[in-house]
Specification:
The structure holds three protein chains of three kinds.
Chain A (H helix, E strand, L loop, with lengths): L1 H18 L2 H26 L10 H35 L2 H5 L5 H7 L9 H15 L6 H27 L10 H9 L11 H10 L2 H12 L5 H32 L2
Helix pairs in contact in A: 1-5, 2-3, 3-6, 3-7, 3-10, 7-10, 7-11
Chain B lengths: L11 H24 L2 H28 L3 E2 L2 E2 H18 L4 H9 L2 H6 L5 H31 L7 H26 L8 H15 L11 H8 L8 H8 L4 H36 L2
Chain C lengths: L5 E14 L4 H9 L2 E15 L4 E5 L6 H8 L7 E6 L9 H4 L2 E5 L11 H12 L3 H15 L14 H13 L5 E5 L7 H18 L2 E6 L2 H7 L2 E6 L2 E7 H8 L2 E8 L11 E6 L2 E7 L3 H11 L2 E7 L3 H14 L1
Parallel strand pairs in C: 3-7, 3-8, 5-6, 6-7
Antiparallel strand pairs in C: 1-2, 1-4, 8-9, 10-12, 10-13, 11-12
Helix pairs in contact in C: 4-6, 5-6
Classes of the chains: A mainly alpha, B mainly alpha, C alpha/beta.
Chain lengths: ~260, ~280, ~325
């Protein structure tokens, strides 16, 4: 598939580029550790006043924090750079370069940009998850591990679809500079079990911004509290979201190319 | 050679009046500029509000499941704290060190250095002007939050008056702190690390993360000796807490102290920063 | 000496440029010990400009023109020598100094991006503490002079490059500076716009008796505006004098860049072949001969493309060198 090969070529160039900036790596590690430290301190404070939060223990909450870190890494390293670049190119009129290439435009604009060092969050998150599991008494069953991997995949795809829909909005509403901040704010809700939030907010961060599917569901999987119906539903929702986002992308593209005639 | 009309030397009063004129004009210009970014600013503010709402919900949940209160704070108290937090936050968002990095790199600083007015005046005036439309954008958010989270408020007129001043105190302290940090950009491009550390300290020591009374005692003691407390906790406390008039005034005094300290540090570092910049330029 | 608008004596600007070889080993080493190289951007230049003069600073890219202007406007610290503008030492950046100068840089934006230029002008009024009556009078005069009445009401971001340059220049003159530094003001603009800006600067200077220092690598800028030209290269002044002297040298010839079907032939009959790159040949011909040679080329050779150009500034400087050597 030439599309895939072209995409991977872009990715490789991006990675090689980032590899030059070793200092950025150290900086990123520092920032990630600081962010995690703050999260841990919050948990410490919370659990100095209670033993469980919405049915989740301290260790289980650590698992949520770890999953959130992993997802943050995925978003900041791969998803966000591409979507923000898309938004900027729509504004500058430079998107035409991508559209005239003989490959699927959506694939191209989704994988060509990377912020390699942001991916540091992924191993850090993995470490936290491991630590949490250790405190919970160790063993994760094969089924749980599988469910976890699948749930993570669903979550990543859903976050991608979400960002794609927002970035596609640039075709109509040009300036999207506030997106990273807005997303960060809402993304932080995923640090805690979504059950604590009022209904309307819980609905929002399940179906509008896929926080629940991206963070809570994988966390439930790895802490053995996930039921297969939820996972199935997550899968169906992912398929629906992907179809919708692709349709919306093409809709936006038609609008863009029609308008720039 | 023709005489420039503006080259008459202005006396002290004239100079002050011109400065005031500059502030008013800059603030007015900023309001006009901000007006064009209504939608985007709203989105930004909504993202900002997410942070306290999360903490609000978490602590209210804990309070409800722990017999109604945590360290004497009920869910209603937490709601009040974090809602006032959002207003204080709206006011204390200032020009960040990243802004300095950008400004140095793209040559905007050179343009500012050509002017007969210290660039800091522009920053202070510009952001101050921006606060005015922001306050208007903020009002509906505050109303919605109040309706949803049902805060308990018990305010005296004196507290409101002090609050109105304290939010500007918070603005100034944070402005000069972050500007001083921003000056580090004149020596290195890696100011991000330092700034991240600063933010972490601020999160923990200012009441931005949780009301300071929930932090361990040693943290609370430490917070008294640092400026962070006066950028979040004190302004919030004036409305939400039960401070006596003496304590309110003392708090304003501390804000004044930290503002002046910030100005002093900034003024000192600025001379070195400019010397370094004009050695290389852009 | 104190009544000179600009006084420069032995001005020096030395940069320490970090140097690094390629490769991983060199990169690691550079983390520990930085190797620097000394670059003399301005290497001991001296000149005086009397009030009301308009002087062109001509030289190729990297010659030291912009560096000199930045030193004269206080943006760069002087490494050695002396510089005085209107009696002030620029690097002190005194308020009274800054209120009497203006520096306009070709592709830099100092106006508010999202607002109409008029609002930025108002801001400048406040920054420079211009009395309102004077401000309004000068503002309207300049707007009319440059014919930007309809442009000043549009947000600056909606203006084209040339239009933006126009409003930028007006914005920078509102405080009626006595000394105007223009750094590559016509760069990137089309020919009509270049003319417009030059005419405007000339008229402003005439009306307000300002001193103007203009840098450019376009000979046309200098020819149109300046009586006196200073040629600078590698940080040193090569020529300081009457423009006509320089112009007559330059005006003497032109270059013809021609792409032939087969560029290997002998073209010396047409003119001096100064460059050959495959089928692209560059000829130097006397100005008077240009039309004749062009016609002959088109008639006698298989010409795919042809361009007649003014000689590049580097060649002018070469000739200046040669001329100085002879005289």
């Amino acid at each position: 598939m030439t599309t895939l090969r072209v995409a991977l070529l872009h990715l490789r160039i991006g990675v090689l580029n980032d590899l030059q900036y070793r200092v950025n790596f150290a900086l990123q590690v520092l920032q990630s550790i600081l962010a995690v430290t703050v999260g841990l301190i919050v948990f410490q404070l919370v659990f100095s006043h209670t033993t469980e939060l919405n049915g989740w223990s301290h260790s289980e909450l650590l698992a949520i924090l770890g999953v959130q870190a992993v997802m943050a890494g995925v978003v900041h390293a791969v998803i966000q750079p591409n979507m923000m670049r898309l938004s900027e190119e729509v504004q500058d009129g430079k998107l035409d370069h991508a559209l005239t290439k003989p490959v699927d435009a959506q694939m191209l604009i989704s994988v060509r940009q990377v912020q390699l060092w942001q991916a540091v969050d992924i191993p850090i998150g993995a470490v936290i998850i491991g630590f949490a599991l250790a405190r919970l008494g160790g063993n994760v069953g094969v089924l749980d591990a599988l469910a976890f991997a699948i749930a993570l995949a669903f979550g990543a795809v859903l976050l991608y679809c979400f960002w794609l829909v927002l970035a596609t909005g640039s075709f109509w509403v040009i300036r999207m500079w506030f997106l990273p901040e807005l997303f960060e704010g809402i993304f932080q809700t995923g640090r805690f079990p979504i059950g604590i939030y009022p209904d309307w907010l819980r609905f929002g961060i399940t179906f509008l911004v896929p926080i629940a599917f991206a963070i809570t569901v994988p966390a439930e999987a790895v802490t053995s509290r996930l039921d297969w119906q939820t996972l199935l539903f997550a899968g169906l929702f992912t398929v629906a979201a992907f179809s919708f986002s692709r349709w919306f992308w093409r809709f936006g593209l038609r609008h863009y190319t029609g308008a720039s005639a | 050679m023709s005489a420039t009309p503006s080259s008459e030397k202005l006396g002290k009063v004239g100079r002050l009046r011109s400065l005031a004129d500059f502030y008013v004009t800059t603030m007015r210009t900023e309001i006009q500029t901000q007006f064009q970014y209504r939608a985007a600013t709203y989105m930004y503010l909504l993202g900002m509000v997410a942070e306290p709402v999360i903490y609000l919900v978490v602590w209210s949940t804990i309070a409800d499941s722990s017999g109604g209160e945590v360290n004497g704070l009920t869910a209603g108290d937490f709601a009040a704290y974090y809602i006032v937090w959002t207003l204080v936050r709206t006011m204390n968002i200032v020009f960040t060190p990243y802004g300095w990095e950008w400004r140095i790199r793209n040559g905007e600083l050179s343009g500012q250095l050509l002017r007969p007015l210290h660039p800091i005046h522009y920053d202070v005036a510009q952001f101050a002007g921006g606060k005015i439309p922001w306050l208007f954008y903020y009002l509906p958010i505050a109303i919605v939050l109040t309706l949803v989270f049902d805060p308990t408020f018990d305010v005296r007129p004196a507290e409101i008056a002090v609050f109105a001043i304290a939010i500007w105190g918070a603005y100034l302290i944070r402005t000069f702190n972050q500007t001083a940090l921003g000056l580090v950009c004149f020596w290195t491009t890696r100011v991000g690390a330092l700034f991240s550390l600063y933010i972490v300290l601020e999160l923990l020591l200012s009441g931005r993360l949780v009301p300071l009374t929930l932090m361990p005692d040693w943290v609370q003691t430490l917070a008294w000796f640092l400026p962070f407390r006066w950028t979040f906790y004190f302004p919030i406390e004036t409305l939400v807490g039960d401070l006596t008039n003496a304590e309110l005034l003392a708090g304003l005094g501390m804000q004044l102290f930290w503002t002046l300290a910030g100005i002093a540090v900034f003024a000192l570092v600025w001379r070195f920063a400019i010397r370094r910049y004009t050695a290389v330029g852009n | 000496m104190s009544d000179q608008a600009v006084h420069v004596d032995g001005l020096l600007k030395i940069f320490d440029v970090p140097e690094r070889d390629e490769g991983l080993k060199a990169a690691t080493k550079s983390l520990v010990r930085r190797k620097t190289r000394e670059v003399r951007a301005v290497d001991g230049i001296s000149f005086d400009i009397t009030p009301g003069e308009i002087v062109g600073f001509l030289g190729p890219n990297g010659a030291g023109k912009t560096t000199t202007l930045k030193m004269l406007s206080g943006l760069l610290y002087v490494s050695g020598g002396e510089a005085r503008v209107l009696g002030h030492v620029p690097s002190k950046r005194e308020r009274d100094f800054l209120r009497r100068i203006a520096l306009v840089m070709g592709n830099r934006n100092q106006l508010q991006w999202d607002l109409p230029a008029l609002d930025s002008f108002e801001l400048n009024r406040a920054i420079y503490q211009i009395p309102r009556a004077d401000f309004l009078a000068l503002r309207d005069e300049l707007i009319e002079l440059l014919e930007i009445g309809d442009l000043v009401r549009k947000p600056v971001r909606q203006l084209s490059l040339g239009e933006r340059m126009k409003v930028e220049i007006v914005g920078s003159l509102l405080h009626r500076p006595a000394v105007l530094f223009l750094d590559e003001p016509t760069i990137g603009l089309d020919v009509t716009m270049q003319k417009r800006i030059r005419e405007f600067v000339a008229e402003y200077r005439r009306r307000h008796e300002a001193t103007v220092m203009l840098t450019s690598h376009y000979m046309a800028d200098v020819e149109a505006l300046c009586e006196r030209v200073i040629v600078i290269h590698h940080g040193k002044i090569l020529f300081d004098g009457d423009l006509t002297a320089l112009a007559s040298t330059v005006a003497a010839w032109k270059t013809i860049a021609v792409v032939l079907e087969n560029g290997a032939g002998d073209l010396s009959a047409y003119g001096e072949v100064i460059h050959r790159d495959g089928d692209l040949v560059t000829l130097r011909v006397a100005k008077a001969d240009t039309a004749r040679v062009t016609a002959r080329l088109l008639a006698e050779q298989d010409v795919l493309d042809l361009n007649v150009e003014d000689p590049p500034i580097e060649d002018v400087i070469e000739l200046v060198f040669a001329r100085e050597a002879v005289e």
